[in-house]
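From: lab user (bench 3)
To: helpdesk
Subject: output format question, protein + NAP

Hello, I'm new to running complex predictions and I'm not sure whether the block I got back is the full result or only part of it. Here's what I submitted:
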Amino acid sequence: MSRVALVTGASRGIGFECALQLAKAGVHVVALARTKAGLEQLDDAIHAAGGMCTLLPYDLLKGDLIEGLGPVLFDKFGRLDILVGNAGMLGGLQPTAQVDPSLWDRVFALNVTANLRLIRTCDPLLRASDSGRAVFVTSGKAHNYTSFWAAYSASKAALEALALTYADEVKHTPLKVNVFNPGKTATAMRAQAFPGEDPKTLPSAADTAARLIAEHLS
Ligand SMILES: NC(=O)c1ccc[n+]([C@@H]2O[C@H](COP(=O)([O-])OP(=O)(O)OC[C@H]3O[C@@H](n4cnc5c(N)ncnc54)[C@H](OP(=O)(O)O)[C@@H]3O)[C@@H](O)[C@H]2O)c1
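Helpdesk reply: Thanks, we reran it on our side. This is the complete output you should expect:
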């Protein structure tokens, strides 16, 4: 049976390209995001390339429902070889003193807690693989603190602490866990943060996804 990957945030941007490239390499991709149109576009691209995927329209802000994912994947595949925790949100840019606590909570719920829940539910499946890989998509903002980025920066710093602690816990097993910083990439999120920037001057999502796969999943 081919390798099985769960990619979150696969409806556009880096996650879309990562899912497509993994599928082109023969991996059965389980593609998760909320936007069905984006997932269907991915499905078309994967099938046109002769690959296989399962679409999972799913809102990672739906809290403990995420924890039902592991059993569903176990029933269908029996294991998980690759987890790409890529879905994320910017949450807007505001002076720290004006950050809306409910928006802060949503940013943390998606960028951090959803990944904890994915780890909780996918850990037995990843350990069932003979070469499990989990990679969580972080940002330079996890370490580089600039005005107006408090919620996003704090969430990515927390994500790194979560993922790298998990990495240490599994370091004597075949499962390898890491974080990946994409750097500037031409996506919807980047355009939201830097609306005046010409996306043609940036690396494409396809280039960034290729780097993620080469560095962590090959
Ligand atoms: N682009 C950059 O320059 C850059 C730089 C550093 C780090 N990053 C990181 O790279 C990752 C991918 O970002 P991107 O630039 O590709 O952004 P993007 O184009 O905005 O894509 C974000 C993805 O996350 C999904 N998502 C958002 N909310 C979700 C939810 N509640 N449930 C499920 N999925 C959800 C979106 O799908 P739906 O809206 O369909 O749900 C979409 O597929 C993020 O973690 C981001 O922080 C990006």
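A quick orientation on your result: The chain has seven helices and six strands. Let us know if anything else is unclear.
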